[in-house]
């Protein structure tokens, strides 16, 4: 099962189902409109911190069960991510079952928008796999609770801008924790995948004086980076990057790049990248820790994108969103410190911190105020 936003560690089984030890989801809504072909599931995990925000994934799931499992996991992951991003937003997510290439239509998206609207603001949607800003603009014709819109409609535009910036902040925190300095000058950073986020990350690193090594399966993506930064080194593939002489390894392609085979071969001392679910399973983090490798939890350092789109709710302001994304530095550092204090891996410390905020700040909502 893929997971764009990255799953918290405790999620080793199905969530929100009978018999699970996990808290249940607040609300799960099945939405069907036969005439447009819409079949969607919206899952709201928690609104303890505010309305649930999470993207709409348009994907040809093999079964309704697979779609349900995905949306339950993804919505829970969003609650953790939004909590640690310091947002006053809960966690939610939606899936539309179908092939976006053939099944997407104005009627379907607008029908979906009406269902989102029916939740009265408990759920804010955004882009995810298979949905784009233009789709959000269509959904918004029926619904007030839409982010990730195109800039012509006041949207935040390409979320990879602050995703890359946030990963860079996470890297600075990791270097500070490990070496006592926040400067990346002279550090050798390997980036796997120089697409939207990876390429912007190269810009930040070069500006900071780091040495950058990249790989990508797409030659054009490599060429684009080399044209901007001729000094960037290129290696053949991800396997070569893993064993390269690096200080920092930044997975920015697909999930699962660190697994039982690759983790023992990694030579870098820090892992910090944008990809979701970088660790094939939670045990990989233990393997990294045993080898003295510091892992910056993916869902913490890649939260810049959600911070960027969430800002649209208040009328998008890049300077404000960027200021908020810069706090990823402090959060990441705090997670490393908590992990050291409590003797747990950073991923576990991150989950604990998110749960603490949801419980402590969410509790305040129980104190009634006239609205
Ligand atoms: N864009 C965002 O705002 C955002 C936010 C949070 C998380 N993420 C995650 O960050 C990662 C990158 O996102 P993106 O928006 O840059 O995606 P993208 O599709 O623009 O870039 C991914 C790049 O990885 C390359 N790639 C794929 N397989 C590879 C492999 N085996 N080895 C090397 N390179 C490979 C692709 O060719 C592409 O250039 C994804 O995992 C995404 O889920 C992105």
TrEMBL record:
Residues 157-366 form the Glutamate/phenylalanine/leucine/valine/L-tryptophan dehydrogenase C-terminal domain. Signal peptide: none annotated. Belongs to the Glu/Leu/Phe/Val dehydrogenases family. PROSITE patterns: GLFV_DEHYDROGENASE. The active site is at 93 (proton donor/acceptor). InterPro entries: Aminoacid_DH-like_N_sf, Glu/Leu/Phe/Val/Trp_DH, Glu/Leu/Phe/Val/Trp_DH_C, Glu/Leu/Phe/Val/Trp_DH_dimer, Glu/Leu/Phe/Val_DH_AS, Glu/Phe/Leu/Val/Trp_DH_bac/arc, NAD(P)-bd_dom_sf. GO terms for molecular function: nucleotide binding; oxidoreductase activity, acting on the CH-NH2 group of donors, NAD or NADP as acceptor. GO terms for biological process: amino acid metabolic process. Keywords: NAD, Nucleotide-binding, Oxidoreductase. Transmembrane segments: none annotated. This is Glu/Leu/Phe/Val dehydrogenase dimerization region. The keyword NADP does not apply. It comes from Thermobispora bispora (strain ATCC 19993 / DSM 43833 / CBS 139.67 / JCM 10125 / KCTC 9307 / NBRC 14880 / R51). Residues 1-24 are annotated as: Disordered. NAD(+) binds at residues 193-198.
């Amino acid at each position: 099962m893929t997971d764009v936003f990255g799953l918290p560690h405790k999620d080793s089984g199905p969530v929100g189902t009978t018999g699970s030890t996990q808290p249940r989801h607040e609300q799960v809504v099945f939405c069907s409109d036969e005439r447009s072909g819409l079949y969607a599931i919206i899952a709201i995990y928690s609104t303890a911190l505010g309305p649930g925000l999470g993207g709409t994934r348009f994907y040809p799931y093999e079964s309704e069960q697979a779609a349900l499992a995905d949306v339950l996991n993804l919505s829970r992951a969003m609650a953790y991510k939004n909590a640690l991003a310091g947002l006053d937003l809960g966690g939610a997510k939606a899936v539309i079952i179908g092939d976006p290439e053939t099944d997407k239509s104005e009627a379907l998206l607008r029908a979906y928008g009406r269902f989102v609207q029916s939740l009265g603001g408990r759920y804010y949607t955004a882009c995810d796999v298979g949905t784009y800003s233009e789709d959000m603009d269509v959904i918004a014709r029926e619904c007030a609770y839409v982010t990730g819109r195109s800039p012509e409609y006041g949207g935040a535009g390409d979320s990879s801008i602050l995703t890359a910036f946030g990963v860079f902040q996470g890297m600075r925190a990791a270097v500070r924790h490990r070496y006592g300095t926040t400067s990346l000058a002279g550090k050798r950073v390997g980036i796997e995948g120089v697409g939207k986020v990876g390429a912007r990350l190269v810009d930040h690193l070069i500006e900071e004086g780091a040495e950058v090594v990249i790989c990508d399966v797409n030659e054009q993506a490599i060429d684009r980076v080399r044209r901007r930064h001729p000094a960037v080194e290129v290696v053949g593939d991800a396997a070569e990057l893993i064993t390269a002489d690096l200080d920092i390894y930044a997975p920015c392609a697909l999930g699962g790049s660190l697994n039982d085979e690759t983790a023992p071969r990694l030579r870098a001392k820090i892992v910090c990248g944008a990809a979701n679910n970088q660790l094939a399973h939670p045990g990989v983090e233990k393997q990294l820790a045993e080898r003295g490798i510091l892992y910056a939890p993916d869902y913490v350092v890649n939260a810049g994108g959600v911070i960027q789109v969430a800002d649209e709710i208040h009328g998008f302001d890049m300077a404000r969103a960027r200021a908020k994304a810069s706090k990823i530095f402090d959060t990441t550092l705090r997670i490393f410190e908590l992990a050291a204090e409590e003797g747990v891996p950073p991923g576990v410390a991150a989950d604990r911190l998110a749960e603490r905020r949801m419980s402590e700040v969410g509790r305040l909502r129980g104190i009634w105020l006239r609205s």
